[in-house]
Each structure stands twice: as C-alpha cells, then as structure tokens.
C-alpha cells in the first residue's frame, strides 16, 4: 500500500481572527516587525523560527517546550497568568511551570541572561513527583 503524505501547511489565513501582518514564521514573506521584550526589541521572524525549531527538535524537553510555545503562538487556550497576585503559583502549578520553562527557554535563546536565574526553580516545580506534562 502506498501512502502519500501531504506537506505540513498553515491554514492560519482561514481561521477567524487571522491577521495578514503576522510574521511568526508561518509562511509568507518576512516583514521587519519586532517584539518588545524586557531585553529590548527582538525580531518576530527569528522568534518564530526558534519556536518552530524547538517544536521539531528530537530532544524531548525542547520539543515539549516548543509545542507549548506553538499553542501560545496559534492562539489556543493557554494560561492567562502563571502566578497569583500574591506571587504564588496558580492551581496546577506543574502545568503552569511548564509554560514558564518554555518561555524562559525561548528567552535564553534570544540572549536574555536574566531568564537563566528563574529556569532551575521553574523546572523543579514542573517536575514534582507524580506529575506528567504532555503536549499533543
């Protein structure tokens, strides 16, 4: 039996709320847009490429982080905040910490040195015994 595999395509332009100005690595010509971050402006295209590279990684942890970032990028339902106003984690702390690890890992890749300070703590919270973080 012969199976023809179709190439992976973005159907973003067919989804409600699609904005043609987006340049997060989802196809189309690159545009000179930037994201404002605590370390300054970062190329939106480069961030998109990093997320895609992480999501396609053969390293389990990098792939998991990349897939979480893809959920954020594609507008899927994700946590609005990771911490409560008093500084404690939201309920389901390991899940929220997994998002923090993903974002901090991306921040490190765009040279945010401060992100490295918080990554070990977030990993400890994410890896609490009896918790399995999976991304589909």
Please write the string of helix (H) and strand (E) elements: EEHHHH
Tally of separate helices: 4
Number of strands: 2
Structural class, by secondary structure, is: mainly alpha
Radius of gyration: 16 Å
Low-confidence stretches: none
Dominant shape = globular
Number of domains: 1
Q: Any overview of this molecule?
A:
- The protein has 136 residues and is mainly alpha-helical.
- It is 40% helix and 6% strand.
- It has helices at residues 44-55, 60-73, 93-109, 115-126, and strands at 34-37, 40-43.
- A hairpin with a 2-residue loop joins strand 1 and strand 2 (40-43).
- Helix 1 packs across helix 2 and helix 2 (60-73) packs across helix 3.
- The longest helix is centred in the last third of the chain and has 17 residues, at 93-109.
- The radius of gyration is 16 Å and the shape is globular.
- The mean pLDDT is 78.
Summarize the entry for a quick read.
The protein is mainly alpha-helical and 136 residues long.
Sum up the structure in keywords.
136 residues; mainly alpha; two-stranded antiparallel ribbon; 4 helices; 2 strands; globular
């Amino acid at each position: 039996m012969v199976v023809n595999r179709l190439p992976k395509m973005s159907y973003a332009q067919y989804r409600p709320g699609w904005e043609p100005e987006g340049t997060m690595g989802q196809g189309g010509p690159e545009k000179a847009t930037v994201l404002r971050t605590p370390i300054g402006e970062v190329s939106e295209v480069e961030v998109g490429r990093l997320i895609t590279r992480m999501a396609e990684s053969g390293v389990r942890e990098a792939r998991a982080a990349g897939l979480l970032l893809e959920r954020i990028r594609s507008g899927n339902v994700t946590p609005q905040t990771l911490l409560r106003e008093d500084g404690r984690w939201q309920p389901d702390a390991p899940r929220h910490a997994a998002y923090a690890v993903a974002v901090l890992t991306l921040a490190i890749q765009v040279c945010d040195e401060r992100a490295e300070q918080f990554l070990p703590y977030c990993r400890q919270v994410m890896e609490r015994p009896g918790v399995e973080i999976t991304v589909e």
